[in-house]
User: Which sequence fits this backbone?
């Protein structure tokens, strides 16, 4: 039975990846950091089937001993300080977890068993102020936030360990992927939650920042399949994962409000507090390599994603 160790098990992607690997008969070990309150909301339904252990990307020793004890065949590094605005308020912490944390886990693998296959959760935020449209594996990076800068480090240290130590270290450059399990502060979930609250009469407006920003949004459940496929290849490489289409935040609002027969223009208020010091205006992927080499095909389209998220928030709030 293969064993997968997942950092960031309590996050959006960690929960979907755990479900996928369980369906493939993996033993799943999820790493969660210690906190004074339990953050198992996304994995409560899996707790009988996975092993959750304490560890922290700040702490080299905890990573080393977990890899020694559980002997994983695959390690998925999904843990990060992943919210872009927070990275301007806490840039050093973001660098320590999202950048240096990758080195810590790579070092743990190198010391314990360099044959372990490794996945690094890289990001389209690395393309930032894009130097090419659409963005593919060899598009140069121009990050626009401390988070993006940290992810560039994480990407290159992964490539470097692959080349320096011949480790099976892959980097998935994933474009934005969303779901009903997305954190409430990210724009898509903020909108779906806001729409549901307005529809149910719980609030009257939704305050957002830049409505013209464009993202290549897909469904998280589809994207974790690509992570797994990357680790099943003969040769470790980097892959861009995205839908190959882009939509503005405004369009997301239009569909989400329209789905419950409301007009977003009557409820959305633009608020300067949600603008960023430097913005990523246009992200659009070229996922040709993933589609041809990994055979990866997403199942959920943009409209379906938006309506799925609104429906889920309506259900949740009604309950
Ligand atoms: P998420 O929901 O924010 O989850 C992040 C996870 O990291 C949480 O489980 C969090 O634990 C954990 N974590 C944070 N700091 C940690 C630390 N010091 N030690 C151990 N664990 C720590 O993020 P996601 O959307 O699932 O994304 C997964 C990964 O993919 C992240 O690395 C993200 O940067 C990257 N990524 C995401 C997207 C996207 O669109 N979702 C796109 C490209 C790349 P707590 O629950 O305790 O906070
Ligand atoms: N969060 C947020 N809140 N974003 C807003 C708002 C708002 O009220 N109004 C407009 N936006 C715009 C932001 O300016 C940004 O351009 C876009 O919506 C998307 O913001 P987020 O949903 O916060 O995601 P992100 O693109 O910054 O980052 C996510 O995707 C990256 C991949 O490109 C995160 O998941 C990162 O961890 C991930 O790497």
Assistant:
């Amino acid at each position: 039975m293969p064993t997968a160790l997942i950092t960031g098990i309590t996050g959006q992607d960690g929960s979907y990846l755990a479900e996928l690997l369980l369906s493939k008969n993996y033993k799943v070990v999820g790493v969660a950091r210690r906190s004074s309150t339990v953050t198992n909301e996304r994995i409560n339904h899996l707790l009988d089937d996975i092993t959750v252990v304490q560890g922290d990307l700040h702490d080299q020793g905890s990573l080393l001993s977990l890899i020694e004890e559980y002997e994983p065949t695959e390690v998925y590094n999904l843990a990060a300080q992943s919210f872009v605005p927070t990275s301007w308020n806490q840039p050093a912490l973001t660098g320590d977890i999202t950048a240096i944390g990758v080195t810590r886990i790579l070092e743990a693998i190198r010391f314990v068993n360099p044959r372990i296959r490794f996945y690094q959760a890289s990001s389209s935020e690395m393309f930032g102020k894009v130097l090419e449209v659409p963005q593919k594996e060899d598009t140069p990076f121009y990050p626009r936030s401390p988070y993006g800068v940290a992810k560039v480090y994480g990407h290159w240290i992964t490539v470097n360990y692959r080349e320096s130590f011949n480790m099976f270290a892959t980097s998935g450059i994933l474009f934005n992927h969303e779901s009903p399990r997305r954190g409430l502060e990210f724009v898509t979930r903020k909108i779906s939650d806001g729409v549901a609250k307005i529809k149910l009469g719980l609030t009257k407006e939704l305050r957002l920042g830049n409505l013209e920003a464009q993202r290549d949004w897909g469904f998280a459940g589809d994207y974790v399949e690509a992570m797994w496929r990357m680790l099943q290849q003969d040769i470790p490489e980097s892959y861009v994962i995205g839908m190959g289409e882009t939509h503005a935040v405004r369009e997301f609002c239009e569909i989400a409000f329209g789905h419950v027969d409301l007009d977003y223009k009557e409820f959305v208020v633009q608020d300067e507090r949600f603008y960023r010091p430097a913005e990523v205006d246009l992200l659009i992927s070229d996922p040709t390599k993933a589609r041809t080499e990994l055979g990866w095909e997403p199942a959920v389209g943009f409209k379906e994603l938006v309506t799925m998220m609104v429906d889920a928030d309506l259900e949740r709030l009604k309950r």
User: Anything to note?
Assistant: Residues 183-216+245-318 form a domain with the UDP-galactose 4-epimerase; domain 1 fold (CATH 3.90.25.10). The mean pLDDT is 98. DSSP finds ten helices and 13 strands in the chain. The first helix runs from residue 12 to 23.
